[in-house]
Design a protein that fits this description.
Two copies of one chain form a homodimer. By secondary structure, chain A is α+β, with helices and mostly antiparallel strands. The first copy, chain A, folds into three domains: about 10-270, BirA Bifunctional Protein, domain 2 (2-Layer Sandwich); about 290-380, Rossmann fold, CATH 3.40.50; about 400-474, Translation Initiation Factor IF3, CATH 3.30.110.30. The first copy, chain A, has helices at about 10-20, 40-55, 70-75, 80-85, 110-120, 165-190, 235-240, 260-270, 300-315, 330-335, 350-355, 375-400, 405-410, 425-435, and strands at about 25, 35, 60-65, 70, 90-95, 100-105, 130-140, 155-165, 195, 210-215, 220-230, 240-245, 250, 255-260, 290, 320, 340-345, 355-360, 365-370, 400, 415-420, 435-440, 465-474. In chain A, a hairpin with a 4-residue loop joins strand 10 (about 210-215) and strand 11 (about 220-230). At the A-B interface, strand 2, helix 2, strand 3, strand 5 and strand 6 of A face strand 2, helix 2, strand 3, strand 5 and strand 6 of B.
Chain lengths: ~475, ~475
């Protein structure tokens, strides 16, 4: 098996090779940008869906599912939104051989599917807040180059839609979403920075947008999610209003929170290495792979392995015994490429002693057992996650550097932290210099320690500036 | 709140009223036959999906997901299949404002999406059996009247697709699917009969089809799933073949197994009563609802209820405390309509004694605690399921009656068990007499005790006959 391309010098080649070698997606489906979720990739996605559902439901959001198809007249009610998506929409125009009276859009996102029904669900202040989410596939007629998980035409998508009583409540929901995402990101071992996008880069129809960005090497960044405050931009055209305790009718204030399969791409990009994928244990399709090392006189080895696997599964762990005919070395290679957190090697010696040799995906080796074997294995998994988090955080912090001149921006080898006066003109000057985007002003502490921001990097105005992030979004 | 229509004399009216009163689906979405999964309905569906996934994965089937859109040329490779579905397909013809070169079908079922990729996945006999399944939405441009869960245009669908080494292995997979469904049906408390459909009623493209039928009152039946043997009907046009150990290439033999959200409709139809829905505990969105009965001097009642709810949730039970401002009687009514298996009434008296008053959805009342409170509640839930199963089985058995003359068939008040010679002409004569369908010959024991079949009910031929089922499929 050939080595993978070099991650830092040939990122995209490395990425595509890892997706294929790990068996996460099959892109040979005969429609460009619509890929097959293989069993292994699907299991990772199922775990991701569970983490997202758990954390959002912990904030009083309830699951729903709205139809895939949106009538053209509903789709076109909010002007900015339709302008933002029009070029990307797949249209159903025929049913059987009948031309449909009303074309139906395959949802590129679900505002326009959900909000006509929200108008029926919300009557009174007692119906608020209304927090619902769905995990569905969305469709975008992408004209850019597609990449598994990162940019596809059928997108596995998480979207929360909420109605709030007023602007402050909607602001609070944005913050609650940020906290929920921080918990998801902990499970994913994925450090991120929430960034308020500049006006010219908001979601179509939003009042403001907070993106969740991560650095993925050099100047490159990846937006892994977003949270939007819509104010009344959708509730007015869709007629979503409520009766106040005083008997007046008022439009609701709305928010949304979007995540997608791109998070799987982010996991590969952040944790992957020269050997392939590395999955945190909450997402890993298999958390533990047991590789039997055959040998003479291995009485009871099979029973020991089978019993251990069952006990681990009974604890809710995803454990796979690789009994295929490959040699142990080939199995090590395969499961390392696939990113399994923990490998247990069990030969006659281990079996006789009631121990296992454990090697985690970060290469740390040790013996576990014979006492407290399962607890020891669980502990190893959790130590692996901690170390993965620690390493990811260190890399994250090393990915940023300040720049105080446009010249520095032009020579960026990091995601840049720049003082910005807040004007669009200077924003575009920054974008030109870095040949990328002004991502915006972070909503949290900056990832690196910085002094108070000085003069704007572009106009040198003496007015107030803020630290903003600039990079090249993938 | 108005009473529900009568279930036996006005089944469809009763059914629609229950779906609405229980809050399982919202059909006010502006596309006919495409309904909104409300939070409550979605939770039932999520449980159903888990049961289906668990049982099929226990038979070595692995989850996948193939794209929603199928290129027209792939869709049209198998002649019978395309004839069967052509009139029902939604077509995507535009991306943005661009006319697509190749129209894309929204999958009405996924054979034609999956099999071009199976042709890449299967190379050698070592790749067989290949058993994968997906739970996705499918789309059918239905022209008949749509009904929530029973007949919709966007269908939540379970489909297993397998490749087997030969015809006998494919027959064995059909039997394995039947066993897996029997386990699902146990969780659903849903007695069923597997029936081999007559030739003229097979799935388009199948060699043979086994349908899973249930009686739903009077002459009416509901097909709740199907298992098909395709032989080489798809593997030949799609080029799915393998190298035998001897080095020859051979087309695989294929099977599929389909289930859908219709199972939720079946649960309502079979278990529902004059008060509304009744969910078996594995599917119930909430298994337990706690209704606090307020009173004077209720010190510690809140803490008792909160603690109990937490301990039940820690055991993995779906428990909801209804702290809304409605009166207890209104809450009883609401949760009975919604089909919650077990209601716990807790007032100051219960709280002080550490007990609960438990009322199950079949109306059986008792006190639980103070010792072993949670275990007692778990036991009550399992007794509820057993009783539900017992009642459903009794109703099931009472739903069938033999008929040995066409005259009897014409006056059917039951699903009929008839002696049939096996010819299509007599099959159609039976269908005309009962104003419905010859469902076919059961693959299992008949639901009622019968002697050896006598002369064919239609032609009275003295040749060999078999007992077949006839009814009016919904």
């Amino acid at each position: 098996m050939a080595d993978l391309p070099d991650k830092s010098s040939a990122f995209i080649d490395w990425y595509l090779a890892v997706v294929e070698a790990a068996g996460l997606s099959d892109k040979r489906y005969p429609v460009k940008g619509m890929n097959v979720w293989t069993p292994y990739g699907f299991l990772a996605r199922r775990q991701l869906d569970r983490v997202m559902s758990r954390e959002i439901e912990a904030t009083a959001s309830r699951p729903v599912e709205f139809p895939t198809l949106i009538p053209a007249n509903e789709f076109q009610k909010e002007g900015e939104h339709i302008k933002g998506f029009d070029a990307q929409v797949f249209w159903v125009t025929k049913g059987g051989s009948t031309e449909l009276d009303m074309p139906l859009a395959l949802r590129p996102t679900s505002e326009t599917a959900i909000y006509p029904v929200f108008a029926l669900w919300v009557r009174s202040h007692r119906d608020l807040p209304l927090n619902v989410y769905q995990i569905v596939n969305t469709f975008r007629y992408e004209t850019k180059t597609t990449r598994p998980f990162l940019r596809v035409r059928e997108i596995h998508f998480f979207e929360e839609h909420t109605c709030q009583v007023d602007e402050a409540a909607a602001d609070a929901r944005v913050r609650s979403n940020l906290e929920a995402f921080a918990k998801m990101a902990h499970s994913l071992a994925l450090p991120f920075v929430p960034v308020r996008r500049p006006e010219w880069d908001k979601f179509p129809g939003a009042y403001y947008s907070v993106a969740l960005d991560i650095p993925i090497g050099g100047v490159r960044t990846l937006q892994i999610g977003s949270i939007h405050h819509y104010q009344e931009n959708f509730s007015k055209p869709y007629g979503i209003s409520y009766e106040t305790p005083e008997g007046n009718r008022k439009p609701v204030q709305q928010t949304t929170f979007g995540l997608s399969e791109r998070l799987i791409g982010a996991l590969l990009a952040v944790h992957g290495d020269a050997k392939g994928a590395v999955f945190p244990s909450e997402i890993a399709p298999y958390q533990i792979v047991i590789v039997p090392i055959s040998g003479k006189g291995a009485d009871g080895m099979d029973a020991f392995i089978g019993g251990l696997a069952t006990r681990l599964q009974d604890r809710g762990l995803r454990c796979w015994v690789d009994r295929s005919e490959d040699r142990p070395g080939a199995k090590y290679y395969k499961w390392e490429t696939a990113g399994v957190p923990l490998r247990l090697e069990i030969g006659p010696r281990e079996s006789a002693a009631g121990t296992v040799t454990a090697v985690d995906r970060l290469g740390r080796k040790g013996s576990i057992g014979p006492t407290d074997l399962e607890a020891g294995i669980v502990r190893k998994l959790s130590e692996f996650d901690e170390e993965l988090r620690k390493r990811a955080l260190a890399t994250f912090q090393q990915s940023f550097a300040t720049a105080t001149t446009l010249e520095e921006l032009r020579n960026s080898k990091h995601v840049r932290v720049v003082p910005w006066c807040g004007t669009e003109a200077c924003g575009h000057a920054i974008e030109t210099a870095i040949d990328g985007s002004l991502l915006g002003v972070p909503e949290s502490d900056l990832p690196i320690a910085v002094p108070a921001p000085g003069l704007c990097v572009a106009c040198h105005s003496t007015g107030p500036t803020k630290w903003a992030l600039a990079g090249q979004p993938l």
